[in-house]
Design a protein that fits this description.
Layout: H1 4-41, H2 43-50, H3 52-60, H4 75-104, H5 110-147, H6 153-161, H7 192-209, H8 212-221, H9 227-232, H10 234-248, H11 253-288, H12 301-304
Helix pairs in contact: 1-4, 2-4, 3-5, 5-7, 5-8, 8-11, 10-11
Length: 305
């Protein structure tokens, strides 16, 4: 029984940490639910915004009234709910990040807090930058590439024929589609969820890839990587980026080339940022007298012997 007090003292901090973690998780989940509800109220305008590149491409190809469909009763509702979850998390991320910070911060020294906090702020900013680049640059190019193969104007006559009233053309039946004699027409009549899936994949892929400088700089600050080491594996990084571009983008050269160029540029920026971190660390150690940059070639000959 003599060991009981020691056991109680050792378990008390763990219980307190678990209680603190539970409180932070509950607050994060509540913020996520509130974010979902708020995002659901504007889910339809968000959907129109996300499908904007497809609409512009269809109009450029000659379709005066771009139209999409859903083929099951619950598909449109689930599409709006999916948008609500993604953008609800984005709305709740400041609260979630703050709760994570409040849980981790008490165990960090002041210098560690000052080092980690900028990355917590830079991460969502870089994700937003990558998502914006994907939506305004990559998605329009991809849609123009894919939809350019479709003969969109061929569906216009068929769609417009539905607006012709039989009373305006007496004794003439309105055809369901214009007659053709040159084979089957291949047209685009997209589904909402499939088109949204492509857009969200681009946003997530570029948003995560734009985290590369944040991640590598943080690892460099922790001493896990060095600028010299990153430069030495540059050719392997290029191969890895090519594989990544082939996996997360559709099979077209344009988007793959854009993703490779952007991610490789971010890799080079990461090398520069890690080098700056190392220079600041060395300068600080020199100022405190802990860094010895004396080379053996600089020593007197008798000391070398």
């Amino acid at each position: 029984m003599a060991d009981t007090p020691d056991m109680d003292d050792s378990t008390a901090p763990l219980i307190e940490h678990l209680a603190e973690l539970r409180t932070r998780l509950i607050r994060s989940v509540m913020a996520f639910i509130v974010g979902i509800v708020l995002a659901f109220t504007v889910a339809e305008p968000i959907l129109q915004f996300l499908l904007g590149p497809i609409e512009e491409t269809l109009r450029d190809l000659g379709d005066p009234s771009p139209t999409m469909q859903y083929t099951s009763p619950q598909e449109y509702l689930f599409t709006l709910f999916r948008i609500s979850m993604v953008f609800g998390f984005a709305l709740a991320f400041p609260v979630i990040g703050f709760q994570m910070w409040r849980f981790v911060a008490p165990g960090l020294y002041r210098q560690e807090k000052n080092a980690f906090l900028p990355f917590l702020i830079a991460s969502p900013l870089m994700f937003f930058l990558g998502a914006s680049f994907a939506h305004f640059v990559v998605t329009p190019l991809a849609m123009a590439f894919f939809l350019g193969f479709a003969d969109v104007p061929s569906i216009i006559a068929g769609l417009m024929s539905g607006f012709v009233s039989p009373e305006t053309v007496p004794d003439v039946a309105v055809p369901a589609a214009p007659e053709t004699s040159d084979g089957i027409r291949i047209t685009f009549f997209g589904k909402v969820n499939e088109s949204l899936d492509i857009t969200l994949k681009f946003i997530m892929a570029f948003g995560l890839c734009f985290q590369l400088p944040v991640l590598l700089t943080l690892m460099g600050k922790a001493g896990l990587v060095s600028a010299e080491g990153l430069a030495n594996v540059r050719k392997y990084a290029m191969v890895g980026i090519l594989v990544l571009a082939a996996l997360v983008t559709p099979p077209d050269v344009i988007t793959q080339g854009i993703l490779f160029t952007v991610v490789y540029g971010l890799y080079e920026i990461s090398i520069f940022l890690v080098a700056r971190v190392e220079e600041k660390r060395e300068a600080k150690l020199r100022a405190e007298g802990y860094y010895d940059d004396e080379d053996e070639d600089d020593l007197p000959e008798e000391d070398v012997k």
